[in-house]
Amino acid sequence: MKNFDRKKLNRLLTGSVVPLMFLIISLIAIPISKFTGVYLADQIVTRLVRNSFLVLSLLLPIMAGMGINFGMTLGAMAGQIGLIFINDWGIKGAPGLILAAIVSTPIAILLGYFGGKVLNRAKGREMITSMMLGLFISGIYQFFLLYLCGSVIPFKNPGLLLSRGYGVRNALNLITAKGFDSLLLIKIGGVNIPVGTFLIIGLICLFTVWFKNTKLGHDMRAVGQDMSVSGSAGIDVEKTRIQSIIISTVLACYGQIIYLQNIGTLNTYNGADQAALFAAASLLVGGATVAKATISNAIIGTALFHLMFLVMPVAGKYITGQAMIGEYFRMFVSYGVVTLALILHSWKRQKDKEMDRRLDREISSAPK
Amino acid sequence: MSETEALLEIKNVGKEYDGNRVLKDINFTVDKGKIVGLVGENGAGKSTLMNILFGMNVIVETGGYEGEIYFDGKKVNFKDPVDALNAGIGMVHQEFSLIPGFTVAENILLNMEKTQQSVISKVLGKRLDTIDLPSIHESARSAIDKLGVQLDSQSLVSEMPVGHKQFIEIAREINREKVKLIILDEPTAVLTETEADILLKSMRRLADMGVSIIFISHRLREITEVSDKIVVLRDGQVVVETPAEGVDIGQVAKWMVGRDVDTENIKTSKVDKIENKEIIMEVKNLWVDMPGETVKDVSLKIHQGEILGIGGLAGQGKLGIPNGIMGLFPSGGEIIFEGKSLPLNNTLEAQKNGISFVSEDRRGVGLLLDESIDWNITFNAMQIQERFIKPYLGGLIKFRDDKAMKECADKYIDELEIRCINEKQLARNLSGGNQQKVCLAKAFAMNPRLLFVSEPTRGIDIGAKRLVLNALEKYNEENNTTIVIISSELEELRSISDRVAIVCEGKIFGILPPDAPVEKFGLLMSGIHTKEEGEK
User: Fold this and answer.
1) What separation in angstroms does the CA of A100 have from each of A84, A113, A185, B77?
2) Which of B177, B193, B228 delimits the end of a domain?
3) Are B230 and B240 within 8 A, CB to CB?
4) SS3 letters for B397-442?
5) 3-state SS class at A197
6) Which chain B residue lies closest to A365 (C-alpha atoms)?
7) Which residues of B touch A214 (CB under 8 A)?
């Protein structure tokens, strides 16, 4: 019984220790940074709008036992391709964004299927494989935009192309900027709240909850916990895993579209690179592990991670007098969080196994 | 075909793996609503027979089987487990196949969930139907009720005691509507006695409801208690098929282990002489956390100069003993070696103290496969005892002494008759028997005072087996080295050891002289103290 309680306490602690740590650091840094409450609230709302969809797209592969899908950059790239085409066709506002989503969905499905196939051949090493896959597809993405766009694929608007006549320019102003955000924008005490985008994010949360209760979602949970048991029960493990990656990739594609419409400009060639890293860090800061993640982990994590992002550089500037320190700190923290979470997870899993076996031994050698 | 009430009829079934015969001419029947107890040592062919029955892939991939199987009056040949399931055969495996994070009910109905259609699933396909949780719990509860046990269908499997998990597995099988035959492979192995008793009662309940059961267990008491019929397998053949009534445990034990042995092979007992000698190692309350071979509580005295055999069925923990003492797996307890306490979990210290180990994992732990024979033989001696090393500049730089290494390797190649081109041949390219001899040479080269040899004859041919055993015996006589040999083959232990200890359920269950009657060994292996024999 004692062991049992300790296990529960352990689980609670490892679940909340990371978010608490981030909260404490931020609380210390806020007064130093001299930001006002209203400014911070406004900024946090903006960051939530911008990022939470991307973070939510990571949930399903975790549920299916494939860890953090660093291959979500594939989806992000698909979304960017959609946005570039819509920019060229000149369709503005929310309709443009929806059309961009429609154009990029088949690309995302195709990339997701490919990614899922590859990850099925790398069972147990999904995370590093998906990260490498992202870098590889990034090369193809660049080739497509740099050489094929404007030469093989006709562009109407030469303003989008490099001066040599083909290849998309490094940075684009999106004509679809704030397409969703401006739909139902309300202002409460100096804080802008884009209700339209929040509705979309709410929808994806509802989808996730509903999906967990479908047969497919149920199978994903089973596969995520034990592939061989699920397989022997007749669940098609490979197919289930591929489907989880496809859904994640498509959601990441929509997430990137929402992210970019909020920012308003597209960094054509490296815009997607950091998407997965920051989303993964956000999720882990929210108390998720690579084996278990919930919607609240995603939302809380996004808020906390970006709060820290906001205050640390400025706090760092006031303390050291150098703005660079803060920028350095951002990268340091986000990579650090991911590394720490991975180590903690595998360490804990090993400990749990040992403890189970010990418990086993104690039970069976107890006097009968 | 159904002239009797036979549900399952196995006729002349045989099986060969790569020319290795594992099953020969198996015949027996399972009647409707009856429990058949299947008994046999490791390697007797139980698992192969069950794999055939359940249509496992290994059988199909290795060329199918001979003979015929009739199930429910029809001739069957299952191509995969799903076929067998559909025909009405359920199998509960020795390892749990449960999803830890799911509730009891979710596990019982895994991939057989009741679902509800929704608008979305009508468009996008059946897999997007929503799960109907209340009805899942309902069917789970009815399956649990059939077993007659107390289980909460809502609790998580990961938070349940081990004993309950077995019931979940069985409930899963009986939940299938068509199930007619359930195969239980060692279901009581992880249960306490009370839990096992409940399980036996549940089995009887099921049988009374008309479900036939094949019950595999090494606990002979359970077999005689619950079975209607007992089938004993030995060396791939059915030696006995008999109604269980009136059969006593000792009889079954004898059937199980007692092949017609040429008695001259068995070493005559000199236990008295051994036990007068001083103790070289005393093991007190050792536990070892070796997956699949857990040692729970072993206390043992090893005498100077003896060959001690340690036997027992697979998975009972006999392999864990040397692996724990040598520090290859986490362990605890107390070990006194030559009057001094030996630290646990420290391989280097154990080796430095003159204890060597020939691992059962020849290719993994025992050898550097991509290095030559002489390297392999001298490697440990070089690492631990700093032999075969020439120091220069007052020990500042050390070089290998290739000449001494070659001499040593040649000596052992000659002595142990290692068949190879020369001492530079890679260990990978040797046959299993010769690899084992290299492992022995490696241990001998350390000049150990105590030598653990684990499964020395596993996977090598008969000729090489004899050579390996002779080499061990000779080394013991010439150097007065104490040897502890761990093996699954009882006959082998009885032919070489001065005393044979039998391990069961992580403990030493008894120590016998090698010439003790064979059924006594069988009883110990099944976890029955020979003293109890008189009482029952």
Assistant:
1) 8, 20, 22, 55
2) B177
3) yes
4) EEEECHHHHHHHHHHHHHHCCCCCCCCCCEHHHCCHHHHHHHHHHH
5) helix
6) B296
7) 121, 127-131
Could you give the angle at which helices B402-415 and B432-444 cross, rounded to 10 degrees?
120
Which residue does chain B place closest to A233, by CA atoms?
B111
pLDDT of residue B532: 42
Q: Are B84 and B54 in contact (CB under 8 A)?
A: yes
| Alpha helices, H only, chain A | 2-33, 37-56, 59-63, 72-89, 93-120, 126-143, 195-212, 215-225, 227-232, 237-263, 275-285, 295-320, 323-365
Tell me the C-alpha distance between B491 and B267, whole Å.
10
Residue A365 within any structural domain of the chain: no
B98: in domain: no
In a domain, B281, yes or no: yes
Same domain, B73 and B213: yes
Number of domains in chain A: 1
Please tell me the distance from the alpha carbon of residue B414 to that of residue B412, in angstroms, as a whole number. 5
Give the CATH number for residue B84. 3.40.50.300
Quote the DSSP letter at residue B234. Answer: E
> Backbone phi, then psi, for A29, in 5-degree steps?
-80, -25
Average pLDDT rounded to a whole number, residues A279-302: 89
CB distance A365–B97 less than 8 Å? no
Q: Is the pLDDT of residue A44 over 70?
A: yes
Average pLDDT over residues B157-165: 79
Residues B234, B114 share a domain: no
Task: With respect to residue A280, please indicate whether it lies within any of the assigned structural domains.
Answer: yes
Same domain for B58 and B164, yes or no, is no
A190 within some domain: yes
ipTM: 0.77
pLDDT at A79 over 90: yes
pLDDT single digits (tens) B512-534: 888 888 888 888 888 777 554 33
pTM for the model stands at 0.77
| B192 and B79 fall within a common domain | yes
Together in a domain, B460 and B420: no
Q: Suggest the residue from A3, A109, A218 to mutate for an interface test with chain B (most B CBs closer than 10 A).
A: A218
Which domain does B111 fall in, by range?
103-177
The answer to whether residues B15 and B35 belong to one domain is yes
In a 13 Å sphere around the CA of B343, the CA atoms on its Cβ side amount to 7
For A364, the closest chain B residue by CA position comes to B192
Where is the domain boundary, B432, B447, B462? B447
B94 located within any domain: no
Same domain, B317 and B441: no
Distance, CA of B424 to CA of B413 (rounded, Å): 11
For residue A368, give how far its alpha carbon lies from the nearest alpha carbon of chain B (Å): 7
Domain with A193, as residue range(s), is: 2-360
pLDDT tens readout for residues B142-152 = 888 888 888 88
Structural tokens at position B232: 């004993």
Residues B379 and B415 in one domain: yes
In a domain, B434, yes or no: yes
Positive or negative: CA dihedral A144, A249, A202, A292: negative
**What pLDDT sits at residue A233?**
80
A234 reaches B (C-beta below 8 A): yes
Query: pLDDT, tens digit, for every residue of A196-229?
Result: 999 999 999 999 999 998 999 999 999 999 888 8
CATH number at residue A140: 1.10.3470
pLDDT in the model for residue B536: 32
Buried b (16+ CB within 10 A) or exposed e, A250-264: bbbbbbbbbbbbbee
CB B233 within 8 A of CB B239: yes
Distance from the first to the final alpha carbon of chain B = 42
Domains in chain B: how many in total? 4
Q: Is the pLDDT of residue B262 over 60?
A: no
A360 near B CB under 8 A: yes
